[in-house]
Write a structure and sequence with these properties.
Number of helices: 4
Radius of gyration: 15 Å
Strand content: 5-15%
Number of strands: 4
Distance between the termini: 19 Å
Helix content: 25-40%
Order of helices and strands: EHEHHEEH
Largest sheet: 4 strands, parallel
């Protein structure tokens, strides 16, 4: 098997509205993993648009999320992911044996200004860096 045939690990981020935390996490993972990890995000009750304060907080770090659209959580998205990280959706997330599940307890940025979103963003970035280290071989 060539290295091209090796399946990339895949991660699904889930929060209720898919407008803040899960979008920031997906954007960080996409950027920081440099394509080494397949990234998805979804919400059990997706909002109409991504939280503008989250978009602004990420743009401060050079990551553009302005074109992202909240997506509805599907059973297929969970089945296709190796790691499912929930962020406050509780029992609304489907469970499949054999998946790695993590629940990241993070403050909800909904309705908050960018000053309140920055510490949430920074906590997500730290968790993403640890996640990447756990999913990619050393030296990559």
């Amino acid at each position: 098997m060539t290295t091209d045939a090796v399946k990339k690990p895949s991660v699904l981020f889930v929060c209720v509205h898919n407008a803040g935390r899960s979008q920031m996490a997906a954007a960080f993972l996409t950027t920081l993993s440099q394509g080494a990890i397949e990234v998805r995000s979804a919400g059990s009750q997706p909002a109409d648009k991504v939280n503008p304060a989250a978009v602004e907080a990420m743009s401060e770090l050079g990551i553009d999320m302005s074109a992202e659209i909240p997506k509805v959580l599907t059973t297929e998205a969970v089945k296709e992911s190796d790691v499912v990280i929930t962020m406050g959706c509780g029992d609304e997330c489907p469970y499949f044996p054999g998946k790695r599940y993590e629940d990241w307890v993070l403050e909800d940025p909904a309705g908050q200004g960018v000053d309140a979103v920055r510490p949430i963003r920074d906590e997500i970035k730290t968790r993403i860096e640890n996640l990447i280290a756990s999913l990619t071989p050393a030296g990559k």
